[in-house]
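Lab meeting, item 3. Inverse folding demo.
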């Protein structure tokens, strides 16, 4: 779900492109012909008492940064992304999850 470049606010285009792995990425092309992923920026907002304090922000940032892939992990991902079993074996999820439906 990507907003076409033609709909980007002019004043934000440079900032948006800074988050792309390749500024020349074109969402219109098939993913099988393009080796880049484009913009995958996510934004999270934390609201609550003390959230404006730098120590609280630093703690949150530190925890979130542990979720990011290292350069070596990214290379592993790139080499295995088309083989789901190999990908799951390389990146074991320590969090057990279950789906609840009503």
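The presenter then showed the designed sequence:
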């Amino acid at each position: 779900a990507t907003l076409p470049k033609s709909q980007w606010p002019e004043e934000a285009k440079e900032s948006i492109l800074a988050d792309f792995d390749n500024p020349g990425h074109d969402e219109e092309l098939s993913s099988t012909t393009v080796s880049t992923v484009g913009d995958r920026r996510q934004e999270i907002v934390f609201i609550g008492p003390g959230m404006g304090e730098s120590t609280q922000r630093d703690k949150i940032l530190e925890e979130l940064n542990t979720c990011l892939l290292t350069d070596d992990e990214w290379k592993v991902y790139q080499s295995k992304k088309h083989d789901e079993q190999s990908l799951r074996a390389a990146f074991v999820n320590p969090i057990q999850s279950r789906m609840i439906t009503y």
